[in-house]
Amino acid sequence: MKPNRWIVPVAGTALVGLAASFAARSSLDAEEKKPPADRDNPFAGKVVVVLEKGDVGTTGLAALENPAFLEIKGQRFLTGKRVGKPESAWNGVKAYLAFDNVASIYEFDNVEAFREFEEKVTEETEAAGRLFEDMILPNPAIPRVLPQADE
Questions:
Q1: Each residue of 44-59: pLDDT tens digit?
Q2: Does residue 140 carry a pLDDT above 80?
Q3: φ and ψ at 78, to 5 degrees?
């Protein structure tokens, strides 16, 4: 029996073609998949509100967009761009908060969700302030400090 000398080149070409199609499919699948969440940074792509430790007079509050952890000379920091009211001068300023000084972190999916929350808190605070004014200033002749709710 005479061996067929074309079997090796045909089989080799088929294997190369199969490997090429597998590689092309793998690269397309890789483009479609989102990268896995960063295990070192659970807040990637989010907005966080950070409350710093301290007494009432020095307690700070910061909202950071795209927060990340950074280590400088052995100390961990939570960094990100400040987010606040649109007219705030602090918007977009990069902040570095010492992680040892963080008391609480509140997470939001995006800037819009944070701004909606901020509006609700402002409304609730003003309503509580008006209620307090009504308790201590029952006389309508006394001028009010807070804006009155539309009735």
A1: 889 999 888 875 544 4
A2: no
A3: -100, 120
Predicted local confidence at residue 142, as pLDDT: 62
- In this structure, are residues 81 and 68 in contact, taking their beta carbons and an 8 Å threshold? no
**Ranges of each domain in the chain:** 1-33, 47-136
The closest alpha carbon to 82, from 68, 99, 71, 67, belongs to 67
Is pTM beyond 0.70? Reply is no
